[in-house]
């Protein structure tokens, strides 16, 4: 076929027809039809699985209104999503064929797709080898690359199919020859695929590098960069070694049973137990390896993104360590530096508006607050660390010291380590509350039961110090809607403070619960030294404690009361203190009652 009148895609079918061999032509047609059908079936199933696992299911699982995490069986939902995705993919393929496919051979359509898929390469390769690569940079690179690909390859296919004027290709938009999609900026001599790849990769890589260098990676991004770029510096075991937390074998088994079925989940767990030298999966320790195994197995059914969401909802990860807290503080310092630069540039603008001046004033306040916060946190962290180091060095330099002295020093080290851990947890808790990222689990509960459980939880502390606790609770208390664990946190903090400020052997703490027409009121009263009136609001500030900081500063972090006020305020209540020096202190808070039309 030297004249080019026959499409290269139909050479094998046209040859027997040209030689008058209808039987062979029929055989070739059947073979080609079966191959094409097989490709369509395999690709639509693969794409529908990707759409379900990596697009639809992560969105559905994150939707709290659907409550998919509580449904016992999701297999029907998975099948339904994949079947509808198959229909949508087939329709999209058919629409593209009708719009642009008739003007191109099959090979050309495939090359257009390959050029599009190549846009993912810079972000993938950069994520493996470049620590500074960020999510913002990857997103910018993808957007730029796909935009150039669409302009230099996709839109010309629409023009050749008659959906756009040919002048778009031949003369460029608005007659600007430098913008001709197949000869962009005067670049000629390349076929359209090479031309597209050159410009799209240039835009993609440039935007990726620029976006990464001008944006600050978040803490999770930094952790992921370290995990991938420094993968060979880590021990064998991969991701499972990076996870810290607690899990339940029964919870993980129930999770996999919902997606894989009980029989298949049981077989998988038994095989994993035998591989670790155990007789039954009931003997498996709920460690990081089991969590990693369950997540990997679940990813095969619903995809890695959805598997991560489901496993995270089942296991309980530990809070960040001190090094990660320092990274957060370092990031906050860089934010402050950036805001200083922004403020300096804004002063250089001659036509600054009143709104911009107000924003600059707010930035100054924010800078001062963050500076104070970082300074205070650093001081509070350094104090227990200094004690731990000092006593550890004493024990190291004098290994022959008597047992009583060693026991005393070790007790101090343990006490200071517990103080350090408590400070870190409270800093993280306060940061989540103030940023609006804290998790809340509001349920209908009895405030009377919360108070009773809190008194029981702190009974050991009051007994050790010889403090008497009196509780005055009404028999019938209206139900409220709140987070039980958060209210327990508030009550335990108030009770611990009250006991701490009472004299040993002479202390008395009274707890009262009062019911009003619109709210419930809780009072925690002690007979301690009291609080001066000018400190009544200041004690609810972060790290503020009453007392001389050099002599009689009380034990604690100064974060309990700010956290408690934040929790009470979240549920529509308020917290305050009434006190006079020498007459003890009464901490009170209110919570709104459940609406009257809500059934009991």
Percentage beta strand:
5-15%
Order of helices and strands: HHHHHHHHHEHHHHEHHHEHHEEHEEHEE
Q: How can the largest sheet be summarized? A: 5 strands, mixed
Low-pLDDT residue intervals, each spanning 5 or more residues: 235-242, 548-554, 596-600
Outline:
elongated
Could you walk me through the main structural features you see in this protein, from its secondary elements to its overall organization?
This protein has 600 residues and is of the alpha+beta class. It is 60% helix and 8% strand. It has 20 helices and nine strands. The chain has helices spanning 11-18, 22-62, 75-99, 106-117, 121-129, 135-160, 167-170, 192-214, 219-229, 249-260, 262-275, 288-302, 304-314, 322-348, 354-397, 403-435, 447-457, 459-465, 484-500, 560-570, and strands at residues 245-246, 316-317, 442-445, 468-472, 480-483, 508-515, 519-526, 574-579, 585-592. Strands 4-6-7-9-8 form a five-stranded mixed beta sheet. A two-stranded antiparallel ribbon has the order 1-2. Strand 6 and strand 7 (519-526) form a beta hairpin. It is elongated. Residues 235-242, 548-554 and 596-600 have low confidence and may be disordered.
């Amino acid at each position: 076929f030297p004249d080019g009148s026959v499409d290269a895609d139909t050479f094998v079918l046209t040859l027997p027809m040209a030689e008058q061999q209808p039987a062979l032509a029929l055989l070739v047609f059947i073979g080609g039809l079966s191959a094409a059908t097989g490709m369509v079936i395999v690709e639509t199933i693969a794409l529908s699985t990707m759409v379900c696992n990596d697009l639809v299911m992560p969105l559905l699982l994150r939707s709290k209104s659907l409550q998919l995490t509580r449904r016992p069986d999701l297999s029907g939902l998975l099948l339904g999503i994949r079947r509808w995705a198959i229909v949508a993919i087939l329709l999209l393929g058919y629409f593209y064929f009708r719009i642009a496919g008739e003007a191109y051979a099959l090979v050309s359509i495939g090359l257009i797709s390959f050029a599009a898929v190549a846009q993912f390469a810079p972000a993938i390769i950069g994520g493996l080898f470049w620590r500074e690569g960020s999510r913002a940079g990857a997103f910018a690179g993808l957007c730029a690359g796909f935009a150039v690909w669409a302009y230099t390859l996709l839109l010309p296919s629409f023009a050749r199919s008659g959906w756009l004027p040919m002048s778009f290709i031949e003369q460029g938009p608005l007659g600007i020859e430098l913008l001709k999609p197949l000869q962009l900026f005067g670049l000629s001599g390349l076929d359209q695929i090479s031309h597209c790849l050159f410009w799209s990769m240039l835009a993609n890589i440039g935007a990726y590098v620029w976006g990464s260098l001008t944006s600050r990676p978040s803490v999770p991004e930094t952790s992921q960069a370290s995990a991938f770029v420094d993968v060979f510096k880590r021990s064998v075991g991969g991701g499972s070694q990076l996870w810290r937390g607690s899990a339940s074998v029964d919870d993980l088994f129930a999770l996999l049973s919902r997606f894989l079925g009980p029989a298949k989940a049981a077989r998988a767990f038994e095989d994993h137990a035998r591989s670790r030298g155990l007789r039954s999966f009931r003997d498996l320790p709920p460690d990081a390896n089991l969590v990693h195994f369950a997540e990997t197995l679940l990813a095969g059914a619903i995809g890695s993104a959805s598997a991560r969401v489901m496993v995270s909802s089942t296991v309980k990860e530990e809070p960040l360590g001190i090094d990660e807290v320092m990274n957060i503080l370092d990031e906050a310092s860089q934010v402050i530096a950036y805001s200083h630069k922004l403020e300096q540039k804004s002063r250089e603008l001659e036509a600054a508006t009143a709104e911009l001046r107000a924003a600059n004033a707010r930035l100054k306040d924010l800078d001062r607050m963050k500076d104070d916060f970082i300074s205070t946190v650093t001081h509070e962290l350094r104090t227990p660390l200094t004690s731990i180091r000092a006593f550890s060095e004493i024990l190291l330099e004098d290994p022959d010291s008597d047992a009583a002295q060693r026991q005393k020093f070790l007790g101090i080290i343990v006490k200071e380590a517990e103080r350090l851990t408590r400070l870190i947890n409270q800093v993280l808790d306060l940061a989540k509350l103030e940023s609006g990222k804290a998790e809340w689990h509001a349920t209908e509960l009895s405030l009377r039961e919360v108070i009773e459980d809190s008194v029981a939880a702190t009974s050991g502390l009051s007994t050790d110090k010889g403090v008497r606790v009196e509780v005055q609770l009404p028999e019938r208390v209206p139900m409220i809607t709140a987070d039980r664990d958060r209210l327990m946190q508030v009550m335990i903090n108030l009770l611990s403070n009250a006991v701490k400020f009472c004299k040993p052997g002479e202390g008395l703490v009274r707890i009262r619960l009062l019911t009003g027409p619109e709210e419930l009121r809780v009072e925690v009263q002690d007979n301690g030294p009291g609080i001066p009136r000018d400190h009544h609001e200041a004690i609810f500030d972060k790290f503020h404690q009453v007392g001389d900081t050099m002599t009689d500063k009380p034990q604690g972090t100064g974060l309990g009361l700010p956290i408690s006020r934040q929790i009470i305020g979240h549920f529509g209540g308020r917290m305050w203190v009434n006190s006079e020096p020498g007459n003890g202190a009464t901490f009170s808070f209110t919570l709104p009652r459940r609406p009257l039309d809500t059934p009991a």
